[in-house]
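Notes continue from the previous slide.

Worked example: a multi-chain complex. Inputs as given:
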Amino acid sequence: MSEDKVLSFEEAMEKLEQIVGHLEEGDVPLEKAITYFQEGMKLSKLCHDKLQHVEKQMEQILREDGELEPFTIQEEE
Amino acid sequence: MEQNRYLTVTALTKYIKRKFDADPHLQDIWVKGEISNFKAHSRGHMYFTIKDQQARIQAVMFAGYNRDLKFTPENGMKVLLRGEVTVFESNGNYQIYVKEMQPDGIGNLYLAYEEMKKRLEAEGLFSQNYKKPIPKIPHYIGIVTSPTGAAIRDIITTIRRRYPIAKVIVFPALVQGVNAGPSVVNAIEQANEFGKIDVLIVGRGGGSIEELWAFNEEIVARAIFQSKVPIISAVGHETDITIADFVADLRAPTPTGAAELAVPHMAELSERLLVRHTRLLRAMKEKLVSDSKRLDTLKKSYAFRFPKNLYDQKQQQLDRLVDRLEREGAMAISRKQEVFQKLSLRLQHNHPSEKLIRAKQKQDLNRKMLLKEFTQILKQKQFAFSSQVSKLEALSPLKIMDRGYSLVYDQEEHLVKSVQQVEQGNKIKVKLSDGHLDCEVIEIEERQ
């Protein structure tokens, strides 16, 4: 299933759009509609989490030795 | 005669002008010198002299060309010109009609810039066909710029403000000076090797044209062109356009602009997500409502509410049919009986017994008649017979013989009627009424 794959926000949004589109067309059998709906809710939550879950991303800088280290903006004097 | 050797001034001037115009070198000439006698005419054209230590030449730059100048010419300013030299007939002097002008020094760079720009453009490095799309929602954002300064700060604060969930990796580079070009190239390559970068911002803050020059270098242009990662260029201010801007997949006017182009706005994404989420809920709800409406409608249908009616009607129908069957059946029988009775009546009327009686009567009558007739006929016949018998008796030879007649037969028992039938000596038989005589012919006497 698609759960194995980690979807990017954009992919998840794309999929959500497709599912909403299918549901809105209305010709979907109920069982299928429920499956769509469940998947849609899952995707919606996934996107929501991605947006909400703002773990303070640290900017990083690539050092000359090829290692990454946290980067802080040096305010100008 | 002598007079003809003199040219008019006009003719001479025209002749000289043709010499100028026929020379291809003078059509597109590059000149460097210092401006003097600069005069900006109210109608927009610029008139000045361009000179060096030993010489000077009049110059005109018409409004159509000087409109794009990035600097204001002044007396004493060293400049690089490009234009065409021709003769201004009414003044009888030759002058340069300037089409492009750059301050010297930077001007050298500018010439190189123009030359390289043409070359790279011809090679297709600026072609829209090679522009990579910028991902709408990037995860990793790379920045190639100086780790100090306004540009990096502007980019990072903008990204944080709009899209704090993005991961930002800075690939530090020198952005001015002799080593800036190779340093930028190196950083672009590092960003590509890093692997995860979705979009790369390459740039620096504003500065003089010399300070921005690294972004006009060919190696930088080529590095940008070859980058697998889509690149947004952000060099200097709005008005600074470098080669890097032409090659980049997307040009941002400023570093802040580049950050805005690189990442979506969280609020905007939340909004989009909310819209989809709402649509999802509504679509599902509508589906459920419409389905349960359909179910209700079906449940409320007549058949489900009054299921008894389904067979009540049938029963009634059955009863009616049974009734009809019985009624029709009885009627059919009585109709048949009627027909039968009529027929049997007719049959009785036509019974043969009467015929028999009549036939018998007729037969009796016939029989009586027959008997009567027969008896009569019999009597007649008996009478006739006895009459005949009497006649016969009267005619019988025996009767005749009684009266004395006899019959003569020869030996073969033939009746002898003539003397010629016998010869003398023949034995003959003479039959009499009461017997016969065997005799011999002794003599034959024939009557004449």
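Summary box: Chain B has four domains: 7-104, 135-264, 278-327, 401-440. The domain at 7-104 of chain B is CATH 2.40.50.140 (OB fold (Dihydrolipoamide Acetyltransferase, E2P)).
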